[in-house]
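Budget justification note: compute hours in this period were largely spent on complex prediction jobs such as the one shown. Inputs:
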Amino acid sequence: MKQYIEKNRERFLEELFSLLRIPSVSSLEEHRPDMKRCADRLVELLLEAGADTAEVYPTDGHPVVFAQKTVDPSLRTVLVYGHYDVQPVDPLELWKSDPFEPEIRDGAIYARGANDDKGQLFMHLKAFEYMVRETGLKHNVKFIFEGEEEIGSPSLAAWAREHRDLLKADIILVSDTTMISESVPSINCGMRGLSYVEVKVTGPDKDLHSGHYGGAVANPVNILCDMISSLIDKDGHITVKGFYDDVVELSDEDRAKLARAPFDLEEYKEFLGIRDVKGEKGYTTLERTGIRPCLDVNGIWGGYTGEGAKTVLPSEAHAKISMRLVPNQDSETITRLFMDHFRAIAPDCVKVDVTPCHGGNGFLIPISSDAYQAASKAMTDVYGIEPVPSRGGGSIPVLADLQRILGIDPLLMGFGLERDTIHSPNESYLLSQLFRGMEAIALFYRYY
Amino acid sequence: MKQYIEKNRERFLEELFSLLRIPSVSSLEEHRPDMKRCADRLVELLLEAGADTAEVYPTDGHPVVFAQKTVDPSLRTVLVYGHYDVQPVDPLELWKSDPFEPEIRDGAIYARGANDDKGQLFMHLKAFEYMVRETGLKHNVKFIFEGEEEIGSPSLAAWAREHRDLLKADIILVSDTTMISESVPSINCGMRGLSYVEVKVTGPDKDLHSGHYGGAVANPVNILCDMISSLIDKDGHITVKGFYDDVVELSDEDRAKLARAPFDLEEYKEFLGIRDVKGEKGYTTLERTGIRPCLDVNGIWGGYTGEGAKTVLPSEAHAKISMRLVPNQDSETITRLFMDHFRAIAPDCVKVDVTPCHGGNGFLIPISSDAYQAASKAMTDVYGIEPVPSRGGGSIPVLADLQRILGIDPLLMGFGLERDTIHSPNESYLLSQLFRGMEAIALFYRYY
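Corresponding output:
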């Protein structure tokens, strides 16, 4: 497929850019029309690439795009999953170029969604087009692209249940993750789940003068800090009651396998600009993000945050808190445990509200499966090295749902790299990874 | 003076409203022209009220207004201090009427500055006018109104040192505080000092995907919460090293005197909408705000605070933290102790910056002084009850500076009430307090 890429390179980029230029931020109401525009553009691209049918399906939230090409019902069917929604772009001032006007610098595309997941889903479109036009497709292929991955896929599970027959396939193929490095390809064989909640602590029913009341009236910001601080003990364990009940401890052998993945702690720290890492006692950095759950504050706000010094004792304090879960932990159970725990530790002097935001379960795929083996061979061909089976720290909760609803395993061939800083300013995707990803995907079909 | 008020009531209100309509928010750069407008308007009002001279003095910050009327150099001289700057108005959506378009509802003026301090300084203008026009002034009177009280009076101390001769007086008279209640008048004989800092905790040098890094990389919001939580122990003591070194413990006798002030804990809790108070172990609520120092977070922010659920491990977390100090604690010393402590408790996995914002020392005035006694008699005449000597929880750091620079005690005859919710949305000032304040001030001059 190398030659095909070379011949069509400019067209490929222009098509991808047409997707990146659409600000399809699913979490912001103002971008609702952009979501529809992006779905429509995907339909055009799918039909041009060779799909028999491609349609936009409305949902209660943002639309689902579904397309398929049937070659022969007796052949294997691959269901490609991707998402066309992106994260918000703030803080905007840290972007070196417009997040929605893609720019190529130093061999990488810079734009929101360049990697996650417009860039990665685009590789599947072009590998598909190549097979249709040049080699003859030997599989039936279906595409499902959703617009709500970044907000927890509230509509897709219901949609999938309704369209179970339409979605019948042998494997769910996904590119929405990273590999360890360009020189160490890897395949994700497991992802963490997620529980995400928003909490509000209310003290007095109005903002107060901190001089008149300070010292006598509980400050909700101080209380929120106390409560958050108490959620993780000094060994890095999460203190939510029952949190670890379903966590499976890996065997020493499994831990040894994972430890074979090359990892340079000094490089890692340098890349992040930190002097030291921090995490659960008794686990390595890779284990902390791969096989162990964790708890993070994703956002906090309360009181006066403007210029200057306002002496206010605020009425409210807020935080967004998320927990990453390992396979076997159930997201709904953990969310409930968190809510009970957080309410239980609230002192009498404040009122506490906890709202579940979104979540999903983690999952694992067997290394011995045909699909994993085909992906492994394809990546070996492209990178010249056998990929490492790895465990992803992130969450694609909807994949656990699809696995459960459709009874199909997901296979995660991700071509992102750490340097891409997805979800952050200056998200990027290396052109070399974009094109090698296309090759590897085409080869996957050859071996599967 | 009652009759004079009745006769001039409408004009008085119109004059006060003309001040309240000017959005003189000292902390926001955009309001710089409003500061000058407000100073100019005060000069007009001072001259109309009978001052010999009134002038706007530029400073490095917002201008100082100084006015005087000399009757006879051998008479006592009263220096009236006030401030014409106000706090920011956010959260604006909680205001029931425009903060800069005063409105009278249920016998109170609603506007930013209605009490703090435009309403209260205005009482001095009108008591002065009354004496000049109706009874003959038996004192020399000077007025100093600054525009930087809400941002820590960065310019006034230097200005006062330069104009020490101009400011010569026997007493500094100030209305910028509250009394216990309408039925329990009180005079502030001490105020707390202030140390206000802004802190920044930096983890990774960019925002990260919380799935990929969560559990292995220190989250600066979680760390900031840990650090803030550690600043106060479970007994409500501040843990900053050396913090209590200069705090004078009150004698049991002094504590008993303070305890005579009527105080209904249930009413207090109901007014604030809280189920319980919280503070330093071993002290009452009035002691906690009057004679004990405290530490409050005035604002906190970090990570994603918008709509929806962004799974980010943020690069930075910020907080504004202030400490109220009791007399004998030195603001600069405490700020230094805090900075040293906060840096010392920062774990290696983050970087911490602490910036001092503003501060000032607390002070005390003797109850036996002529001025206190005159104020006490004046308030007894107006309210029919002898006022309680109280200790204010708030801070007017500049008064401690003026006391030191000029060698004159400040006397705090404040007519605000808790219900006025200064610094908060819907700041108000009761008309009854506005007019009784004028009377009491005029009577003060009679007894002093």
